[in-house]
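Support reply, case 0932

Customer input (verbatim):
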Amino acid sequence: HVQLVESGGGLVQSGESLRLSCAAHGFAGNRYCMAWFRQVPGAERAGVASLLTDGRTFYTNSVKGRLTLSKDNTKNTLYLQMKSLKLEDTAMYFCAADLAPTVCRHGEWKNWFVRGRGTQVTVS
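Our regenerated output:
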């Protein structure tokens, strides 16, 4: 069955780096746009970065210049390289995939076709 599995989260100090992975299973990830969301307790799950099938990337303002998306289609895996981490980056990070461009650019978490279960990032 189709699923996304996130990994790479952990506890790091402010200013350090971390790379998250999102492995796609059961479907060809190269046909889908993919994105990362994050959520802190008491808040809604919010989009962080998205990668369209044409290679364009979009980032929320608070992470521009610090977080970078990349994709390895041979491994069917999306990556989120995080550098200069801040306390406010502490959150559960989730990835998602969809075929529809409108979802990829503006879709709320609930509208995405395939959604992962998350990996925790804690910055101290």
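We compared this against your earlier run and they match. Two observations from our side: The mean pLDDT is 94. The CA atoms of residues 66 and 83 lie 5 Å apart. Please reopen the case if you see a mismatch on your end.
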